[in-house]
Amino acid sequence: MAGIAASKAGIEKATIALTDKSWSREDLAGYAVIEDEKPNGIDIQTVHQFFKLRNVKRQYFVAICKALELNWQDITNPDTTTRGPETGFFHENTSLKSIDSVKNPVSLIAVDNSDYNNPFVPQHGKIDDPRFFFGRQREIRRVFETLNSGSSVAIIGERAIGKSSLLQAIYQQAPNQLHNPRQPHYLNLQNVHDEDDFYGALCSFIGIETVKGYSLTRALESHRLLLLLDEVEKMTWDGFTNQVRGQLRGLAEGSNASLRLVVAACTSLDILFPDSQDKNMTSPFKGICIEETLKRWDDEKICREFIMSRLNADWLTPVDKPVSFTEDEIAGLIAESGGYPQKLMMLCYETYNRYINDANSGLNTPSIS
Prior knowledge:
7 strands, 15 helices, two-stranded antiparallel sheet, alpha/beta, about 375 residues, five-stranded parallel beta sheet
């Protein structure tokens, strides 16, 4: 099959990027979008092929690298790719030519923002830098009100709506917002293999050997933790039983419980964990976690404020001719995003880069003034 394969060194870079973003391969498949052809992401099998050093279609290869915020040319295997004589795109290499003179397929990838001061970053993954976090003040206030009332919280929302970024903001603000101090710990369950691995991670937070059951309850008696669990759907997979979920419930019950939980999921927890109901047991999070639904930015005002906050951010490197978007562009970006923060970020990133590319090409760009 004609296409591009990654090098071993390239896969090492991709694996590091995937880990840094706390993504699974399934997440990567969803984020590797191709406008018009694959707007909701590519097939997971393509991602598996990519990591197995096998050829994948060039547009899929570029989309994967773009999602990981990697330069796709740094990831390719030069023994399997070369430039077509007319298009400048890559295809299967039969002559083992050098790729030193290959041109970027600019219609498929975004320009590296490190050279262009693009403020619309990061395009994918959770936002863990407070400078880049925007909005969600109402949700943050409600989460801490719930925690301070003695309950735990479940943040429910669609994928790419900002749940992981909100967890990071709660993690960072907990020392100042909690009335009764708790040590915050964030754990993405995509990085946890099974419940034994989970117990190991939990025990590592308090610096003890891995224990479970009553031994864990005793070990936590002198600790007060705020445990933020991302991708809690993982607890429905093989390797996790209702036993670990039941212990979490036990540790989180009571006004002075060892644990307070903030969990993030795409689905209501009562629906996510029906096994407890089937066995006539109390749902592990029922009555423990108060659900907070994370919605799209359905107010045009907040979308507009986000765009302007990025264009005028004080952390940008000053330039002689700063970029500004036209009113028609802003309205179009908001409409196309559908209120999804991550999609709005990506669309703004591309629009900003277009201005920079046009300016560098010597074109007249009225919105760079």
